[in-house]
Amino acid sequence: AENAGYTMEVTGANEAYIALLKRLVQSDRDAVMKAAKKLQKAAAKAGQEQTREAALQILLAAEEPAKVSKMVIAAMKDPSKNYRNAALSYASGFADKELYIELMKMVPKAKPELKIDILNWIGREAKKPVKHDIIQNLEIRFDLPAKQILLEQLGDVNFDVKQAATWTLVKIGDKSYIPSLAELLKSDDKQVVLLGQDALAAFPGDIDGAVAKAVSSAANAGKIAGLELLAMRKATANINTVLDQIQIGSPEVKAAAYVALKDVVGERDITNMCGMLETADALAVPPMQRAVISALSSLPVADRVETVTRRMLQAGNKDYLYYLVLASTGQPDALATVVKGFRSNTGVKRDAAFEALLNWKGIEVADELYTICKESASSNYFDPALTTYVKLVSNPAFTGENRLLSLRKAMEIAKTDAQKIAILQQIENTGTFLGMLYAGEFLDQKPVQQAAANAVMNIALGNKEYMGANVRALLNKVMEVLDNPDAGYQKEAIKKHLAEMPQGEGFVSLFNGKDLTGWKGLVQNPIARAKMKPGQLAKEQAKADEVMRKGWSVEDGMLIFNGKGDNLCTEKQYGDFEMYVDWMLDPAGPEADAGIYLRGTPQVQIWDTSRVNVGAQVGSGGLYNNQMNESKPTKVADNKLGEWNSFYIKMVGDRVTVVLNGEKVVDDVILENYWDRKLPIFPVEQIELQAHGSKVYYRNIYVKE
Fold it and tell me: What is the pTM of this model?
């Protein structure tokens, strides 16, 4: 160790020597004491602080118990902060009441550096359950409790000493310290005020009364800190302190009091808060609305709506101030009131209702915001309404499929490139196959091209099961248009993905969005068709196609059945397949109803869930005509009538799985042969869109064999 200069180096000699002395403490104490003292002097001379501290640790372990405290006290006179703190740290293992007393005796006359060391250590010791009570009740002598010395340090001119004393008092946690800590709020030094605020915030006892008392005589910084503390502690008993500052405080204090108000009100304050809201100036209205909302929060939700509605009648021309309060209830009748307020008012009242709609938390407001967008396309309401709508419908709590359906609605009315980019970014997050294809439609639109490319790329690369010709084409297009600093890396990732993608055609579109190519009319049922001779079948098919063209048409990229005619059938026949199809029932009816025939067999059911007289309350997606196997879906996953829905259907053999709007409603259930129940389902047949006497819309029809 001597040759190594008492430092830590490659041979490890110094560490080995220290370890040896520690090991011999019990068996050869005198020799160890002598060696450790020599090591301490040598380390000091060599300037090796860590070795000197290690020697001190050995000496403390080897010394007689009666002399250990003296050694620690002696160490406090050392000029090295590290050495002093090492001594205190080592002393923690054997510290007793006597040592605490001796150290506390040093504090009043000690230099700031030593005060800080001792105070911080006393605080750490007080956090130990077995030592807390000893320190809390410590007396230096019969007329001088240790807490008096601690409290005196709060008045030290050195901020670091003041800070150390403050946090030691917090760690001890004696309730009698609270008034002294609250006095810090009265300081003219903002740093001291913030120290007091932090300490009181962390204090485990009831600080409210002392803080409220300090607020009345503190300077502005202390008043604000005290108000924030009362708010944090929900000091409802001290609401008058907050109200007083609203009346007499400086502008900045008054602002802080308004902010604090919501946290100190209760049910008993509802009437007073409403009165203050109705007389508040413009700047005070928002915090007063929050205060009213908070005061109402202890009431049952239904009672909140009734209370606010009654108050609105009393408020007369100021009733609009309560729209935001109604929004906090989330109740349907409250929403109806706010919507009515928006539609029937102008100016400030209409703006207040609109703000309430923007701040509504539930998804139920989304339709209202969408309607506002469509009706107010040229107004200042459009952009915030659309932005809020997109935020609401993009909630990850909803399935990717439902998010996509709503985001497509938003895209249909979006006006600016920024709006379209925001929508594409959310479509990317849906991770859906149809979302990827939809984003691909924007790859040729230069202003939104990069957002579309990112959506396509990230959905495809994040879902290896998405494969086929259309996916390949989209990714190759993405590589052509990518333009950002990471484009090189992204293109390499796409190339790797394409190289690993399984071969195969993948999902093929059955509807081109323009005409009825690939579709034909319905000729009877599969069994009857199979018995027809080719000539007879051709003749019947011509008649069926004529009927088809009267009932089915294409408009704005949608396949529409007008309610008159028969099923629409694929020209091609299918065996095992997967299928995507979006559908929407016309709410005008009559008796909104439809379905998807699989291999010419009815059917995956589509209907209006309100038609309880026919059992439609079970929801769409079930295998309606099954008798032996399950015919009902496992859950209701329909969107409301007049909104788009999305099916994913998988048929392998005679077993069918149906996912409606991202929710699995049929899981590997056998589809029975409706036309002859003694026979199994046909191995190969056409897919049909059912005609049921009511208007239906379809889009995004894709099949993968």
Answer: 0.84
